[in-house]
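Retry 2 of 3 after timeout on previous attempt. Resubmitting structure tokens to design endpoint.
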């Protein structure tokens, strides 16, 4: 797996599309954090967000194994899949996803080589990010969710959809990202 760290994104994607389990693991390790953050931005609690992210990766891997995944653009595809699963769960199609507690440690699936300490640190970072995101205004959370659910979306398109100026969208996103960065980097000072 250490050789995979040096591979470029397109190389990892090609190997994952060929069914390389280690390549999938490396891609998940690179992009899972963003998928979870996109779910947190939708107002989903950390435990259910992790479960939805976990289900997202399983669904993508299953599609690849069934030969129904011709392209793999990450993190966009995973973020969209997670959003779909979240909407599906919110509609009641899979209510058990939203009621799961944190019994299962998704970090073990994402990075089986991670130590218990690394998993705990990651969990704490995500919990701090979620708490900080919840302290943001509803507008800031909505913009953050919009942009992270659509990774290729321009600020101009986000502004159009939100009915705001491009400058306001940029300023809001910059503020949210700064707050999340500080929250993630803070070592339990709150």
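Retry 2 succeeded. Sequence:
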């Amino acid at each position: 797996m250490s050789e995979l760290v040096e591979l470029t994104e397109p190389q990892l994607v090609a190997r994952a599309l060929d069914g390389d389990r280690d390549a999938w693991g490396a891609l998940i390790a690179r992009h899972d954090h963003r998928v979870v953050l996109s779910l947190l931005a939708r107002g989903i609690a950390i435990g259910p967000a992790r479960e939805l992210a976990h289900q997202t990766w399983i669904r993508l891997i299953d599609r690849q194994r069934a030969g129904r995944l011709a392209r793999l653009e990450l993190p966009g595809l995973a973020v969209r899949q997670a959003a779909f699963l979240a909407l599906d769960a919110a509609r009641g199609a899979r209510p058990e996803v939203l009621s799961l507690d944190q019994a299962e440690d998704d970090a073990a699936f994402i990075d089986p080589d991670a130590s218990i300490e690394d998993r705990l640190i990651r969990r704490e970072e995500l919990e701090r990010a979620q708490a900080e995101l919840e302290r943001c205004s509803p507008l800031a959370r909505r913009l953050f969710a919009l942009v992270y659910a659509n990774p290729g979306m321009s600020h101009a398109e986000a502004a159009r959809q939100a009915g705001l100026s491009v400058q306001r969208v940029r300023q809001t996103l910059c503020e949210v990202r700064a707050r999340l960065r500080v929250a993630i980097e803070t070592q339990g000072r709150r």
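Attempt log closed. Residues 93-110 have pLDDT under 50 and may be disordered.
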